[in-house]
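Notebook, p. 212. Picked up where the previous page left off. The plan for this session was modest: take the two constructs that came back from the sequencing core last week, fold each one, and keep the raw output in the notebook itself so nobody has to go hunting through shared drives later. Recording the first one now, exactly as returned: residue sequence, then the C-alpha cell string.
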Amino acid sequence: MSGLLVVEDDIQLNKALSLTLRSRGYQVASVTIAGQCLVEILRLEPDVIIMDLGLPDMDGIELIRAVRAGSSVPIVVLSARRDQTDKVQALDAGADDYLTKPFGIEELLARIRAAQRRAGAPASDHVIATAHFTVDLGRKQVHDNDGDEIHLTPTEWGVLEALVRADGLLVSGTDLLRDVWGSHYESQSNYLRVYLAQLRRKLEPEPSRPRYFMTAAGLGYRFDATGSTAQ
C-alpha cells in the first residue's frame, strides 16, 4: 500500500477524506497544522501530500515552499481558493497539482495516481529496450537499433515517458492529458490521437498495426515493451 499525508485543518473533512482514502487501499496519516506536516514528512516519508492552503499556523503557499526546501514529495493541493492567482502561486511554489473544493473523490484519486506515477518512476538512468528502439529515461532520448537518435518533440517525449513509466499499465486518456498538457486540457482527446499517431509513425515498424503503443477504446493507452500485442 502507498502512504499519503493529509494536511487539512477542517477536522470533519480531514476524517472523512482519510477514511475514504483508507477504504481505497492507502495508508493515511493526517495532520491539521503546517508544523505537524513538516514533522510528519521527516518521520513518515509519505508518497504524496494532500494539502489544504488555509491552515491556521502558516499559509499553504509558504508551507509548500518549506516542504520543497527539503523534499521532492509530490504535493496535491486541495483548496477552496479558486482564483487563478492562488493556483499559479501554489504551482510556482512547488505543488504538483491543484484541485478546488468541492471535489469528486474519483478525480482526486486519479490525481494521486498521476503524482505517484511521476514520483515512483524508474530510476533516472533506466533504459527500456524493445526489438526496434531503446528508450533512455535518464537522457530523455530514443535510439533505433543502429544507435541513431530518433528525434521527438518535447510533447511527443512527454507522452512517451508517461506511458513508459506506467510500466505496462493502462493510462486513462484523462490522466495522460493531465500529465503531459496540464489539468486544463483533460477534455482534449484529439491531442492524444494526434500525438499517438506521430509516435507510431516514428517508432512502430508498422504504424497502422501498432505493437508498442496500444489503444484500449474508451479506456486509455498502454505501452507494451515486448511488442507482442497486436490490434
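Okay, moving on. Second construct, recorded in the same format:
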Amino acid sequence: MKVVKKLIVSLFIVTVAASLSSCASNPNEKTSEAPVTTTPSVAASPTPDIIAVTPTETPTVTVSPTPTSEAPSVTTDPSQSPSPSAAKLREKTLTYNAIPTESEAPAGKTVDVTVYTIDSQCQDFVSKKTSVPADEPVAGAVGRALEGHNNGDFSLSGYRVSVQNGTATVDLRVAPNSKRSLSSLSSCENSAIFGSVSRTLTSNSKWKIKNVRFTEKGEEVVF
C-alpha cells in the first residue's frame, strides 16, 4: 500500500514538472512590446494653379477746376478805430513838419500869434506878429521861430512838437547834408534856435506852456 502511494506521488510530481516545462518553453507565447506610434504621412497639398488676371482699364477721372476764392473783405470795427483827435496826434508825432520860408504863407484858416526871434547882435529877443495855421498854432509858431536860421554848413530839415502837462517837447531833425550838428552850434546860434522857440512858446499864455525841452530824433539835446 505504501508502495502504491509513493508511486502516485512520484507520478504527480513528474506530471507537474512536465506541465511547468511545457509552459516555459511554449513557442506560441507572445512577448509584450511597447506599442509603436506611427505618424501618418500628410500628403502635400498641390500647388494652386496661377490664375491669369486680365488688367482692367484705368478709369479716366475728370477734375473740375476749383474756382478761385476771392480775398475776404476786412471789416474794421468802428469801436477799435482811433478817434480823429488821437489819429491826428499820432500822425503829428510820427511826421516832421517842414520849416517854412519867410515868404511862405500858411494855407487854410489862420490865426495871429506872437513869435520871438533874436536880434542881429544876439543880445535880445524881438517880437513880431505872424500868421500860423489855426488848427496847429503851436507847431506853426515853432516853425516861424526856426525860419531863416539855416546857413551854408548847418541846416534843419524838420521838426515836430508835442505838449503834455505844461511841457512842450520840440524834436528837431538836422538835414542829412548838414556839415555841422546841433552840438557844434555857437552860443549865438543856440540863442537864435533854442532861445527863440522857448521864448515864443512860454510867452503865449493861452497855450499854458511853462517848460520847453529839445530833442533830436528822441534823444535829449544839451545846449
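Notes on construct two before I forget. Confidence is low (pLDDT under 50) at residues 24-56, 71-79, 89-93.
Flagging for discussion at group meeting.
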